[in-house]
Amino acid sequence: MANLEFNQNEDLNKQAVSELRKRLKRIYAGGGAKAVEKQHGKGKLLARERIAYLLDENKPWLEIGAFAADGMYPEYGGCPSAGVIAGIGYIADRQCVVVANDATVKAGAWFPMTAKKNLRAQEIAMENRLPIIYLVDSAGVFLPMQDEIFPDKEHFGRIFRNNARMSSEGIVQIAAIMGACVAGGAYLPIMSDEAMIVEGTGSVFLAGSYLVKSAIGESVDNETLGGATTHCEISGVTDYKHPDDKTCLESIRTLMGMLGKPKDAGFDRIKPALPKQDERQIYGILPPSREKPYDMKEIILRLLDHSEFEEYKALYGQSIVCGLGRVDGWAVGVVANQRNVVKNGKGEMQLGGVIYSDAADKATRFIMNCNQKKIPLVFLQDVTGFMVGSRAEQGGIIKDGAKMVNAVANSVVPKITIVVGNSYGAGNYAMCGKAYDPRLIFAWPSAKIAVMGGGQAAKTLLQIQKASLKAKGEAINKEKEEVLLKDITERYREQTTPYYAAARLWVDGVIDPLETRRVISLGIEAANQAPIEKPFNVGVIQT
């Protein structure tokens, strides 16, 4: 399959993956060498070391939100991974969610994105009924930003609300206090089913010694106030006391090994098989330019077991490809944007990446069929939006688009979204963007996420800026207009990258395309532990 264009695509996509790994390596360094040395000097393991020790060896680990807060909070020195590590892994052969504060990053203090990331981890646990383990080591709310983290619905307090809801629903929560655990944050481990504490380094209290002194005049040290001895022997707040991090983590493994079996949602799985078409060829098939066409079916064949794809309505609504296949043994329904230019049954040309009325109609029916058959859905996004213009409007594109959005929004089977390329405007919604509750949503380095394409947006923004300057009496010559357009284009380009999206948790992470099958399989395995309880009902649908 080698040709000049294929080879060029392959080189550029491999460079993009190399850049991804370089960025991740920087993020994995956390707060840096000095902060690492400080934690080790206290006899503590680092957050990532704790997770590695806790998890089963040779089992997959899917990190969630590695890029959270990347490039944000520069005025405070940044906050790599939002100061907390989260993901899906296995403990004693049981799939679970693990959340660990990174004390090398601002002593594990909570920034606004820290709260958002913790809530996302809890959401994954709740949707999939996965046990969740908290490894707590945090100085509490980052006070300079308290107004952005404390009082709103999706802020800090929602975490404790979720603790209570998970407890009522029988979702196992185990917490280990392995460092500081202060103020409102103290409720998180104590609202878990079981809380353990590490002697000498772990402490939990509503107010530290300095605040106690200023509030009531009492002089007391933090160990006496809320250390392991106090809470395991006097207050009864914590359930287990351990001499060090490793013993504590081994205790969690023991508890996890005794859990009863999870329920089974009944999603179909047979013996896994690799694709017959070489997955690595994805690098050569996918063009680095987001404007260039390519055949999405060639990508699909390299993601499915045996490269077998049972395409649905293959000759109708061809700008969306729908069909059935398997990923790592799991039955899946694939909904993907076709990027090649196609011809409809009337011989009319249809642009790749655009959703037309016939494609929306087909996708809606297919999504409903998958819900009827209890087959999980996989969305592969490379969409520039819905077709526009008088012909499309008269053909009812809004009605057909609304129908597709309705089906996606009301689906009860698990949905997993991979942003392959463009993810623009209402196309993001129809193809199960973050607002439509995908169980997992990951992006390839080639992804672009925005309300519209960069060229269109930049020109629109330029017109707005020119009108604003004109209203102030400022004249714009051609040279200044070109400078403005360049600045606007660059700023907009930066805001559409997958890393910008991942920093804000619009996606759960950025992955090498070769990790896609693993992500989908782990996501469906997690979803299989949460039986579907709500009947599928689209309500009033546009016809």
From TrEMBL:
Record InterPro entries: AcCoA_carboxyl_beta, ClpP/crotonase-like_dom_sf, COA_CT_C, COA_CT_N, MCCB/AccD1-like
GO CC annotations, alphabetized: methylcrotonoyl-CoA carboxylase complex
Domain CoA carboxyltransferase N-terminal: 13-271
A GO biological-process term: L-leucine catabolic process
Coiled coil: none
Molecular function in Gene Ontology: methylcrotonoyl-CoA carboxylase activity; transferase activity
Name of the molecule in the record: Acetyl-CoA carboxylase, carboxyltransferase component
Keyword annotations of the record: Transferase
CoA carboxyltransferase C-terminal domain residues: 271-534
Superkingdom assignment: Bacteria
PROSITE patterns: COA_CT_CTER, COA_CT_NTER
